[in-house]
Amino acid sequence: MQKNLALVAHDHKKPDLIRWAQAHKEILAKHHLVATGTTGGLLADALALPVFRYKSGPLGGDQQIGALIAEGKLDALFFFWDPLNPAPHDPDVKALLRLCSVWNVPVACNESSADLIISSPRFEDPGYQRAIPEY
Asked: Which of 11, 16, 62, 90 is catalytic?
């Protein structure tokens, strides 16, 4: 079953995300990939896979991905954020991570958590349905 996956990375973490995505290309190729602007371009080039690109994070891309979460159209977020270099759009980043918690969307913030999510037997189990809260 194809999932909608978002891949996002702050500038200093883009090489880490690219390397991680290349290591998991076979799995990622089975799914619909979306990303914020620059990250999406880098991923499309590195993976030779289609990646739908939203705006750059500071220009609204984080909010566009947040809208996918709120609409129930995102299955997982892989967001390699940089905790040591605050971004000018930090409130948008916090809102995006908050939405993942609100809607119970799996989110990986670094390579280790991304490895655990993508290697989980439930990740590609068509019978697994995450619980979606009713508010």
From this structure: 62
